[in-house]
Design goal:
Number of helices of chain B: 21
Number of domains of chain B: 2
Distance between the termini of chain B: 34 Å
Largest sheet of chain B: 8 strands, parallel, barrel
Structural class of chain B: alpha/beta
Number of strands of chain A: 13
Radius of gyration of chain A: 15 Å
Oligomer: heterodimer
Strand content of chain A: 25-35%
CATH topology of the largest domain in chain B: TIM Barrel
Largest sheet of chain A: 9 strands, mixed
Strand order of the largest sheet of chain B: 1-4-5-6-7-10-11-12
Number of helices of chain A: 6
Shape of chain A: globular
Number of domains of chain A: 1
Distance between the termini of chain A: 12 Å
Number of strands of chain B: 23
CATH class of the largest domain in chain B: Alpha Beta
Structural class of chain A: alpha/beta
Order of helices and strands of chain A: EHEHEHHEHEEEEEEEEEH
CATH class of chain A: Alpha Beta
Shape of chain B: elongated
CATH superfamily of chain A: Class I glutamine amidotransferase (GATase) domain
C-alpha cells in the first residue's frame, strides 16, 4: 500500500502523516506528479489561503494531475474546498471535481467556525463504524454549500457540506487527523477503501 | 454583520407560527417556549422577537409571565409585543425585562398615546413595526389597511426619536418566497441611518445573504428556523486543560492514579485526550534560554501522539519562535507579551499561516477599569482589555484567551461580565480562563460569559473535576458539549 500526501507550500502537513503513523501506516509527502499518479491512496490536505494555494497548484502542474487521478483521493479542509468549482476566498476558480461553490460564513455565527461540531450522514463508505451525529473538529471560515455530491452535513448558522463524494473522490471539511478516535476511524476507512 | 433574530409567537402558552397573519393557518412548533428560547440562546442568538398572539387578539398582553422567565435565562435581548394598547401594559412588558416593546397597530390608530409613552420611557424602548401592504401601512394583525404610506409613517416616527423599525411585507410573511429586498432598499435610501430589521419571507441562507448585502441591521426569522431551512449550530463548547511545562516536564503534580510518570507531558496529554478534553494548551514557563530549546522537541513528541488539537505558548517572543513551534506540529500558538510589545507580529503570523493559528492570550486585572498586564501578570501596560482584544481581532488573531487576574487562583468562578463583553464585541471565539473551581463555574462561563471554550489547570490536574463528569454535568444543563 503506497499512500501519498500531496505537499504544497502552505500549512502543517505533518499532522496528517502523524495521524497515519498512529495507524501504523507510512506515507510519502510529495508534489511529484509521477509519484502521486502511482500511489494507491492520495491525501490532499489543506491549510492556507485558496488563491495562493491554487496558484501554486497551477505552477506545479498539480491542477491537471489531481482531477485526473483514478485511485481513491481524500481532500481535507482547504483541500476539499479546492476540489470544488469556485471559492469566494480570493475569487478563486478551483479544480472543479465537485460542482459546488465555496462561500464565506455570514450571519450571527462566529467566524472561523472553530471547534467540535456534529455531522450527519446516511451512508457508510468512509463513515463505516461511526455513528451519525458524532463530533469532529473543524477550523474554517469558508464552507461548501449542501448539494449533489454531499455525503455528510453539518449545521453552523446554515447547513453545509461536511463531506463530499463523487466516484473515487472523497473530501472532508473537518480535520480527521485532529478529531480523536472518530477521526482516526475515518482515515482508516479511507485507507481501507 | 446582520443579526439573525429568531421569532417566538405565543398562543395558549405554545410556540406557533401563522402564515399571512391569519389565525386559521396556525401551526404548533413547541409546547415549551422557555425551552425553545433556551435553545436559541445556546445556539448563539443574541436577540429574540416575541409576539403575544393571544394579546394581539384580546388587546392586552397575556404572556408577560413567560417573557419574564425567558429574559431570566440571560444572554439575550428580547423584544415583546402583541396587544399593547395601554400605558400599563407597555410598562408591564418593560418591567418583565423586555429590551424593547414592539408596537404595531397603536402607532396607526392612536399615535398620540404612543408619543406620550415615548416621552416617558424613551424612544429606545420602542421597536416599531411597519407592516406594508400595497405601499400602505397595515395594522390589526394585517386585517386592516390604513391609507398611510410607509414613507409618511416612518418619517413621522423618526421625527419622534424612534430609531429601530421592523418591516414586514405582509404578502410575503410565512410564504418563504424571498424577502422584500427591493422595498427595504427604498426605505433605507429614503431614510439613511435607519435601523431596519427585515421580517418575513426568509427561506434560507441565500435570503440572509441578500439582506446583509442590502445593508439591513437584522432579520427576524420564524418558519425557516423552525422547519430547519435555516439551521443554527450545535458547535460544542470546548473544555481545555492547560499544562505548565518547565524544562520539558509538567510543573503541577497531576493526580491520575494510573499514570506512571505524571511529570511527562506526553503521557498526560494522551490521558486528557482519552478522557474527553477537546483541546490542550501547553505553556512553557522555563526560565533559562538553554532550557527553552527543548520545548520544540517536546512539541514534536506531542504532535506525534495526540489526536486532538493543541496550542503552545509561553516565551514566544519573535516571529521565528512561532514558526519553529508551528513547524514542530503545534496547531496553534498563543501570543501574550510579545504581541503587546510588537502588535505587528499578529499581522505577520496571520498573513503567513492564517488566523486560526494565532491565539491572543490576554492577562488583565480589573481595578478602575480592565487593564492588560504582561510578563506573567507582573507588568501593567496601560492598555484597556476590550480595546486590546478588539485590536487583536482586527490584526488577525483567531481566538482570544482571556485570563482574569482577579479571578485566577480563587476558584470562585470566571470573570463572566468581562467575558460576555469581549464575546459580544468580537466575532472570533473567546476562551475563558482563571477562576474555575466548581462545575457551575464552567456552565456560567458559557451561559453568562458567552465564552466559546473554558480553560483550567489545577481542578483538572488534581482530579477535583474529572472531565467526563464535567461534560455530563454541562450536557444535563443544556449546554452543547462533545460527549464521547
Amino acid at each position: 500500500m503506497k499512500i501519498v500526501v500531496i505537499k504544497y507550500n502552505a500549512g502543517n502537513i505533518g499532522s496528517v502523516s502523524n495521524a497515519l503513523d498512529r495507524l501504523g501506516l507510512e506515507c510519502e509527502v510529495t508534489d511529484d506528479p509521477l509519484t502521486i499518479r502511482q500511489a494507491d491512496k492520495v491525501i490532499f490536505p489543506g491549510v492556507g489561503e485558496a488563491s495562493t494555494t491554487m496558484r501554486y497548484l497551477r505552477e506545479s502542474g498539480l491542477d491537471k494531475v489531481i482531477p485526473d487521478l483514478k485511485q481513491p483521493v481524500l481532500g481535507i479542509c482547504l483541500g476539499m474546498q479546492l476540489m470544488c468549482k469556485w471559492s469566494e476566498e480570493g475569487d478563486t476558480p478551483a479544480l472543479g471535481i465537485f460542482p459546488q461553490k465555496v462561500e464565506l460564513f455570514r450571519g450571527s455565527v462566529k467566524v472561523p467556525h472553530m471547534g467540535w461540531n456534529s455531522i450527519s450522514f446516511k451512508q457508510d463508505g468512509i463513515f463505516k463504524d461511526i455513528d451519525s451525529g458524532c463530533y469532529v473538529y473543524f477550523v474554517h471560515s469558508y464552507f461548501v454549500e449542501d448539494g449533489v455530491s454531499t455525503l455528510a452535513t453539518c449545521d453552523y448558522g446554515i447547513r453545509f457540506s461536511a463531506a463530499l463524494h463523487r466516484d473515487n473522490f472523497y473530501a472532508v471539511q473537518f480535520h480527521p487527523e485532529k478529531s480523536g478516535e472518530v477521526g482516526q476511524q475515518i482515515l482508516k476507512n479511507f485507507i481501507d477503501l | 454583520m446582520i443579526e439573525i433574530i429568531p421569532a417566538i409567537d405565543l398562543m395558549d402558552g405554545k410556540c406557533v407560527r401563522l402564515s399571512g397573519g391569519r389565525f386559521d393557518t396556525m401551526k404548533i412548533y413547541s409546547d415549551d417556549p422557555i425551552d425553545m428560547a433556551r435553545n436559541f440562546r445556546d445556539l448563539g442568538f443574541k436577540y429574540l422577537h416575541i409576539v403575544d398572539l393571544d394579546g394581539a387578539r384580546t388587546g392586552n398582553p397575556v404572556h408577560t409571565g413567560l417573557l419574564q422567565k425567558i429574559v431570566a435565562l440571560g444572554g439575550m435581548k428580547v423584544d415583546f409585543g402583541g396587544g399593547i394598547r395601554s400605558r400599563e401594559s407597555f410598562k408591564a412588558v418593560l418591567d418583565a425585562g423586555a429590551d424593547r416593546v414592539s408596537i404595531g397597530s397603536l402607532a396607526v390608530t392612536n399615535p398620540h398615546e404612543l408619543e406620550e409613552w415615548i416621552m416617558d420611557f424613551g424612544a429606545s424602548r420602542v421597536l416599531l413595526g411597519v407592516d406594508v401592504k400595497n405601499e400602505k401601512v397595515a395594522y390589526h394583525g394585517w386585517q386592516s389597511e390604513s391609507n398611510i404610506g410607509w414613507q409618511e409613517f416612518i418619517g413621522f416616527w423618526l421625527g419622534k426619536g424612534v430609531d429601530r423599525f421592523f418591516c414586514t411585507d405582509v404578502d410575503r410573511d410565512g410564504a418563504m418566497n424571498g424577502p422584500a429586498v427591493e422595498l427595504y432598499q427604498r426605505m433605507m435610501q429614503q431614510f439613511p441611518g435607519i435601523d431596519l430589521v427585515a421580517s418575513g419571507g426568509v427561506s434560507g441562507p441565500e435570503d440572509i445573504r441578500q439582506l446583509e448585502t442590502a445593508g439591513l441591521k437584522g432579520v427576524i426569522v420564524g418558519k425557516a428556523i423552525y422547519e430547519g431551512k435555516l439551521k443554527a449550530s450545535f458547535l460544542a463548547k470546548r473544555i481545555i486543560p492547560c499544562l505548565d511545562i518547565r524544562d520539558g516536564r509538567t510543573v503541577k503534580g497531576v493526580n491520575f492514579i494510573d499514570i506512571r510518570d505524571a511529570g511527562d507531558p506526553v503521557e498526560l496529554a494522551v490521558r486528557y485526550a482519552a478522557e474527553g478534553a477537546d483541546e490542550l494548551v501547553f505553556l512553557d514557563i522555563t526560565a533559562t534560554i538553554e532550557g527553552r530549546k527543548t520545548f520544540p522537541i517536546l512539541v514534536k513528541r506531542i504532535a506525534k501522539v495526540l489526536n486532538i488539537p493543541f496550542t503552545v505558548g509561553g516565551g514566544i517572543s519573535t516571529f521565528e519562535d512561532a514558526v519553529v513551534l508551528l513547524e514542530a506540529g503545534a496547531d496553534k500558538i498563543s501570543l501574550n507579551s510579545a504581541a503587546v510589545k510588537d502588535p505587528e507580529i499578529i499581522d505577520r503570523l496571520a498573513k503567513s499561516f492564517g488566523n486560526q493559528f494565532i491565539v491572543l492570550a490576554i492577562d488583565a486585572r480589573e481595578e478602575a477599569s480592565w487593564e492588560v498586564y504582561v510578563h506573567g501578570g507582573r507588568i501593567p501596560t496601560g492598555r484597556d482589555l476590550f480595546e486590546w482584544a478588539k485590536e487583536g481581532q482586527e490584526r488577525g488573531c483567531g481566538e482570544i484567551l482571556f485570563t482574569s487576574m482577579n479571578h485566577d487562583g480563587t476558584k470562585g468562578g470566571f470573570a463572566n461580565e468581562a467575558l460576555a463583553r469581549i464575546s459580544n464585541q468580537l466575532t472570533i471565539p473567546v476562551i475563558a480562563s482563571g477562576g474555575a473551581g466548581k462545575l457551575e463555574h464552567f456552565r456560567d462561563a458559557f451561559t453568562l460569559g458567552k465564552a466559546d471554550a473554558a480553560l483550567a489547570a489545577s481542578v483538572f490536574h488534581f482530579g477535583e473535576i474529572p472531565i467526563p463528569d464535567l461534560k455530563r454535568y454541562l450536557y444535563n444543563e443544556g449546554i452543547t458539549v462533545r460527549i464521547k
